[in-house]
Amino acid sequence: MTPTLVRRHRPSSTSPESRARDWAEIQERMLVPLYEAVYERLEVGDGTRLLSLGCGSGLALLLAAARGATVLGVDRDERRLALARERLLRGDGPAAGARLGVGGPAAVLPGTGPAVDVITAFDPLFRAGGTARDLAPALAEAAAHAGPGSPVVLAGWGPQERCAASGALRVAARLADPMCAPARWRPSGRDDLEDIARAAGLVPDGSGRVACPYGYADLASAVRGLLSTGAFDAATRATDEEQVVKELVEALHPYVRADGTVWMPNVFRYLIARVTVRRR
């Protein structure tokens, strides 16, 4: 891969602000089939009070609000949350009454009593700077504000062989080594989601798989979108941005179509767990 090709596909800016914007404008929409499948299965609509842990720039909340739900969201990335506010809290749209906060569930939930009917954690890491298991305390805290039987949804990658993006994400893992980088990607274990749910005191109650292909206008957009996920941050710190972009472009080449677009079929898995007893 020549330096010229690397420069061509390297984002003009990789500041935290630009990565947050790339997430909102390029990458977040790739998960719409997952959001919609979960909302359809749980019949999210008028009267639903939904809390999103790791709400990102708010697209999943916007879709829930369009169905009639009252939405609350928290995230640890203040830049993504600022974009969520731009989307949700303007004018008199369906999500104008959304409550958004930085940090954990306490940022938007009252001190006591049931406040939500559905809890979602579509981002397994909740951008917490830790392992997926670090999500369990936030889930338990949120579940304390939901009644018995309320659904809590976790999501993660499907089988590696059905996720074209796994090749690109392995680049992030390999370049980040030997750093002990908690946000580094690793393949999903068969029972990862169930383990997190049980650690939070929840009872697994069904699962599903959803096709979420990653589609980009060109290689440059694919690089920007994937870098915006945060999965490559540790690799960039361990090596340098040029090396990460070089190897990412190489990993993406098998998925470049004749018209220059990039198409990567993926399958995501979601788990529905249930709140069993009132914790407060």
From TrEMBL:
Gene Ontology MF term list: methyltransferase activity
Top-level taxon of origin: Bacteria
Transmembrane annotation, as ranges: none
Region: Disordered, residue numbers: 1-20
Basic residues composition-biased segments: 1-11
Domain Methyltransferase intervals: 51-149
InterPro entries linked to this entry: Methyltransf_25, SAM-dependent_MTases_sf
Name listed for the protein in its UniProt record: Methyltransferase domain-containing protein
Protein species of origin: Streptomyces mashuensis
